[in-house]
């Protein structure tokens, strides 16, 4: 009997991340989408990791262990996800259209952190934008704004769709 009670308690806490961020916290969805975009081209550069930390710190005012916990929760959520819908549907409910556009700008900043954008990164952001109800025009505008923040990179000379 006691063993079954212990197992029950263990199972209750097993579903909750040790990071301190609930799985349905919109910040976790943002971090997970950023990680998915970082992984889209098959390699995660240190410049992308640094950019992610800087953006999340700036966006949410987190530092140190809190920031590490958010990134860990995002990585955990991303590893369990089968597609973008899990995160975009949650964010679409929590963010207004201006905030969704701002998120798209953050995702483009992640893409350009290494100075270039790949076709796979383009596709990932196109899917995310589509799922969040962001028009092609707005998506391209946000991409151009992000590219302009990376002077001298090959990002500025990219194709405009």
UniProtKB/TrEMBL annotation:
Pfam families: TerB. SUPFAM superfamilies: TerB-like. InterPro entries: DjlA_N, TerB-like. This is Co-chaperone DjlA N-terminal domain-containing protein. Residues 28-143 form the Co-chaperone DjlA N-terminal domain.
């Amino acid at each position: 009997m006691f063993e079954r009670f212990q197992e029950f308690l263990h199972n209750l806490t097993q579903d909750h991340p040790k990071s301190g961020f609930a799985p349905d916290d919109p910040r976790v969805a943002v971090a997970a989408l950023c990680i998915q975009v970082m992984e889209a081209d098959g390699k995660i550069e240190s410049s992308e990791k640094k950019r992610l930390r800087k953006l999340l710190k700036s966006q949410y005012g987190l530092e140190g262990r809190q920031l590490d916990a958010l990134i860990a929760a995002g990585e955990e959520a991303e590893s369990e996800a089968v597609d973008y819908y899990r995160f975009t549907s949650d964010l679409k409910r929590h963010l207004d259209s201006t905030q969704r556009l701002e998120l798209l700008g953050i995702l483009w900043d992640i893409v350009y952190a290494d100075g270039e954008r790949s076709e796979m990164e383009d596709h990932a952001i196109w899917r995310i934008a589509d799922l969040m109800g962001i028009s092609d025009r707005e998506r391209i505008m946000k991409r151009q704004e992000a590219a302009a923040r990376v002077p001298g990179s090959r990002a500025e000379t990219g194709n405009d769709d």
